[in-house]
Amino acid sequence: MTTKNEYLDKAKQQLSEWEGDLEELQAKAAGASGDLKAKYEEQMVELRAKLKEGEAEWQEFKDSADDVWEDLKDEAEEKWTALAQGFKGSMDKAKSLMVTKDEYLDKVKQQLNEWEGDLEKLQAKAADAAGDLKAKYEEQMVELRAKLKDGEAKWAEFKDSADDVWADFKGEADEKWTALTDGFKESIEKVKSFFA
């Protein structure tokens, strides 16, 4: 069972880690420019707000009477867990802004390879399909192959972008890639549902 002091120490340590993460992010963001700088700043505002919320929660729990800690403990842990998850999500988003062009290209290429594998698995599953199921499958496979080809074209576009404009181009690349990924996942699930 966690005592109030143990809980407060753990939360205080987490707050210190978050402050360190923010300082590190701030240092990396200092070299950004244009659209990327604006996105960093937006994430920094969000992260600072979450840190401030965490500090307020910590103070609230610190100020609570020791004899009511047991009643507050579950609520405190739920609030802290939600706050920690929110901070992590915002930090992950901010860190994704710092991905280098080569790292981004590797990530996209890996995703394309996974999609290729998914298509091969579906092709094997569909080998025994017949009638309407086969027709539905073929129609969806044409769509999936087109999306894979589109993904390969996007990868080439990203690869051909000049290194010196990558930081500004990355936001646009992320939007395009996210839309393509969402569409591919939706189509893959549709095909999988044929065999469920």
Number of E-state strands: 0
Low-confidence segments: none
Task: Please state the average pLDDT score.
Answer: 83
Number of domains: 2
- Helix/strand order, N-terminal first: HHHHHH
What structural class do the secondary elements suggest? mainly alpha
Assign a percent range to the helix content: over 70%
Structural notes for this entry:
The chain is mainly α and 196 residues long. The protein folds into two domains: 4-96; 101-194. Helix content is 86%, strand content 0%. The protein has helices at 4-29, 34-63, 69-96, 101-126, 131-160, 166-194. 13% of the residues are buried.
Keywords:
196 residues, 6 helices, mainly alpha, flat, 2 domains
What topology emerges from the helices and strands here?
Blueprint: H1 4-29, H2 34-63, H3 69-96, H4 101-126, H5 131-160, H6 166-194
